[in-house]
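Subject: Predicted fold for C4-dicarboxylate transporter malic acid transporter, 386 residues

User T.R. writes:
Posting the sequence so we have a shared reference for the thread.
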Amino acid sequence: MMATGKGRNPMRVGIKDRIACFQWTWFTMTMATGGVGSVLWSIPFRAEWLDALGIAVFIFNLCLFVTNSILLTLRFRFRPGSFTDSFTDQYESLFVPSFLVSIATILVNVCQYGVPNTSVWLLRTMEVLFWFYLGASMLTSAGMYLSLWSTLIFPIHTMTPVWVFPAYPLLLSAPFASSLVASAVQVGRMDVLNGVAIAMAAVTAQGTGFLISFTICAAFIYRLMTQKLPRDAQRPAMFISLGPSAFTSAGLVALGNQAGDILPPDFMGTPHSIVILKLLSVAAGLWLWGLSAWFFLVSAGSLWKYVRPGARRSRLPFSVTWFSFVFPNTALIMATEQLGRALGSRGLQVFGCCAAGCLVLVWAAVFVVMVRCLWRRELLWPKDDE
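User M.O. replies:
I've generated the structure tokens; pasting them so everyone works from the same file.
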């Protein structure tokens, strides 16, 4: 293949050169696809075609994850030293945890679509993997932030919610736990799980991830007050800011709804503990749902200049981080559905169902644009300085 550009000499670009451009950022695609599978599972109005669609998305995401892993491994093999460089690059290093988050979405999908259709061995396996994931997410989050703080400097004027990404693995703890419990209840084998330990550990890790993310989002608001909105290429990443509160809301409310299945009747010496925990989970979930909805409005409003009528049309450059339009919003929709169940609100459930349909369309649109950019050599193509 030959590549030419204005002001540059022709260069020959082969398949190895394109693979060498592959980065950790591509795992945002599998994060989003796995999130879509979870959203389809969370829709309260069930149908056989919906289950089939969810399973298809789950299998498709597995294929994408394997493809991403192979291509990234080939990049590291073709370009010696690129593995360690990816951990010290000011941009790419922030997306390294997306690999672990992608694994979490796959494990959650296994709980949702796999456990109900297999025997109890898979349920036991998922419980073991839950504990492995919890430990890995804590170590990865602490290790990545320590590495970044030791090797890089991030000026406040360059700040985006992507800084939250190393804490994202922790934010899947409660959704993972609630999906594991839901699958055990569905197959009637809650006795297999240590439900209390799973729930308490998940809430601990979820709270840790949320508080870390909350402090960083506070810095993001300071950056907006002093530096205005991020530049065009960074606008999609603004949606990452709603993820921490949305995932925490969805996870806490889901575990609260399952309190009767998880806890013994006299938990902590009182027969009212289950009711109290349900009320607290809904109250906390509403607060966090409101915060995530506010961040959604701010993030969506930042895109107004690209769609407003009568204005000079600005072009929003495509990158794989466009999948930020999808993944954080999957959490907001799941939180909406969980609150609808907890409050018995059919209106919230219908709203969440409609939002889920819109999100699937957004995911499909982003995926189509990504394929088109690959075909037109706008992605995985060496730049002038490479």
